[in-house]
TrEMBL record:
Native organism: Aegilops tauschii subsp. strangulata
Name of this chain's protein: F-box domain-containing protein
Domain spans labelled F-box: 123-168
Domain of life of the native organism: Eukaryota
Region entry Disordered, spans: 1-21, 296-317
Recorded GO MF terms: protein heterodimerization activity
Acidic residues: bias regions: 302-317
Bias (Gly residues) ranges: 10-20
SUPFAM superfamilies: F-box domain, RNI-like
Length: 470
């Protein structure tokens, strides 16, 4: 007769207490098998693949939890595939140990929990190079008055010397609304931040001789300076010439809006004979007509003279030489010019011919609004070798960015006046005239509220504080 079946513990007799423990440790509980098998076998007899995957997943989870405790007792941080293979062999996977060893991952590590990500971007943590690239797209005034005042990290980025190599303080509304002393202080901040690397400085209206001396003492690498609509420097007439002498790399000078004399061009040629670009544009006006009118008024007001002396007419040669003094000085002193803008000057064809001979490298010439220049076929033929030429009345012409100019009032924002204030001032003036108290100093006691409900200022119109309260 066949003997009794072997016990699961491997002994031929009755399972011992240790064997019972091993059975419980090896086999899945009956309750779990009933629950899972009910999901595996469908009512029509087919096997549900999803339930099978759930059974396998629950088995691996159960075995892995036990081995994880063993890893903790062994003071190991991760559980290896070799820890699972013996348990799988107990469940009947002895025929595939090597295959399982290859397919199972080598380690099972628990990653740290990810930190919560905020929905709000902290722009102050942008890298310095990224902020510098963004600030390069802004203008000088925008950085000084806006971007550099946001936070400390942005201020650090705004002080990078690379941002201040090209300082452009033109065509901005603040140039016209802020005081000249405020704009000069802003320009000095930009100069200091450049750390001596500034190559270009463009300014409009507010420049003073003190600011030009400040630039000359700190910007040895300056290559271009453009002064648009700058006032005449009465306190230091040669300040631009001194700046040209102190900046060895200077290639471009613009001093527009002022009628410059021949000695200015002589001085520039002596200080910087290698200058490449010169811009000295100004609005055209007939100086001869203005001088004649002044002389006529003087004769009419001079009642002591009984007989009017006849005025000797100036010879044409002397008149032409007088109007071409600036052109002759440029031709004699600045032989390396590539660009010349003299729009609004009174030179004639003789002056243009002298410039063409004295400046053989000239490529750009702008002589618009030169009222005494007669354009004919000969002049056009002499200028044919120049790449871009703009002559009076020669229209249309090809657009050339190099000859684009910045107007004195470009960038100014004109605001509409307060209609209430205008009407109130008109009524006040009419009342004053009716009462016969419309004297020279009538505005001393005049005060005007900015709105119907606001208190009237206590200062006169000559006091700057009056406008602060409006």
């Amino acid at each position: 007769m066949a003997g009794p079946p072997a016990s699961p513990s491997g002994d031929g007799g009755i399972p011992t207490a240790g064997g019972i423990g091993e059975e419980r440790d090896v086999f899945v509980p009956v309750a779990d098998i009933s629950r899972i098998m009910g999901k595996v076998i469908l009512p029509d007899g087919r096997i549900d693949e999803g339930a099978v995957r759930e059974l396998a997943s629950e088995f691996i989870t159960r075995r892995a939890s036990g081995e994880s405790d063993g890893c903790k007792r062994a003071k190991r941080e991760a559980m290896a595939g070799d820890d699972l293979l013996p348990e799988m062999a107990k469940q009947g996977f002895q025929a595939y140990p090597h295959k399982n060893r290859v397919e199972l991952p080598c380690t099972m590590e628990a990653g740290p929990n990810p930190l919560p990500v905020s929905d709000v971007r902290d722009w102050s943590e942008l890298p310095l190079d990224a902020l510098s690239a963004i600030f390069m797209k802004l203008g000088t005034i925008e950085i000084l008055m806006g971007a550099g005042l946001v936070c400390r990290s942005w201020l650090v980025a705004a002080k990078s010397p690379e941002l201040w190599r090209f300082v452009d303080m033109t065509r901005h509304k603040l140039v016209f609304s802020k005081g000249g002393n405020v704009m000069c202080q802003m320009a000095k901040v930009a100069i200091d931040r450049s750390d001596g690397r500034m190559e270009s400085f463009w300014a409009q209206k507010f420049v003073t001789s003190e600011l030009l001396n400040y630039i000359a003492s700190r910007c040895n690498s300056l290559k271009s300076i453009r002064l648009i609509g700058a006032y005449y420097f009465w306190d230091d007439e040669d300040v631009v010439i001194k700046l040209a002498a102190k900046c060895p790399m200077l290639e471009e000078i613009e001093y527009s809006g002022q009628k410059l004399t021949w000695d200015f061009f002589k001085g520039i040629g002596a200080a910087r004979p290698t200058l490449k670009r010169l811009r000295v544009c100004l609005p055209w006006y007939d100086s001869d007509s203005i001088e004649r009118e002044i002389r006529m008024e003087q004769r009419q007001n001079d009642e002591e003279e009984e007989e009017e002396e006849e005025e000797e007419e100036e010879p044409y040669e002397a008149w032409e030489a007088r109007h071409n003094e600036e052109a002759f000085a440029i031709a004699e002193s600045l032989h390396e010019l590539r660009l010349l803008q003299m729009a609004g000057y009174g030179l004639t064809k003789e002056g243009v011919y002298a410039i063409l001979e004295g400046c053989p490298h000239l490529e750009f010439l702008d002589l618009r609004e030169c009222g005494h220049l007669l354009v004919d076929a000969e002049l056009k033929a002499r200028c044919a070798n120049i790449k871009h030429v703009r002559l009076p009345g020669a229209w249309p012409h090809a657009h050339c960015p190099e000859l684009d100019t910045i107007k004195e009032d470009e960038g100014e924002v004109i605001e509409m006046p307060n209609l209430y204030e205008i009407e109130a001032q008109a009524l006040h003036n009419e009342a004053a005239m009716e009462n016969d108290d419309y004297g020279e100093n009538y505005w001393d006691d005049y005060s005007l509220p900015s709105s119907p409900g606001s208190p009237a200022p206590t200062y006169s119109m000559d006091d700057p504080r009056y406008y602060w309260e409006l």
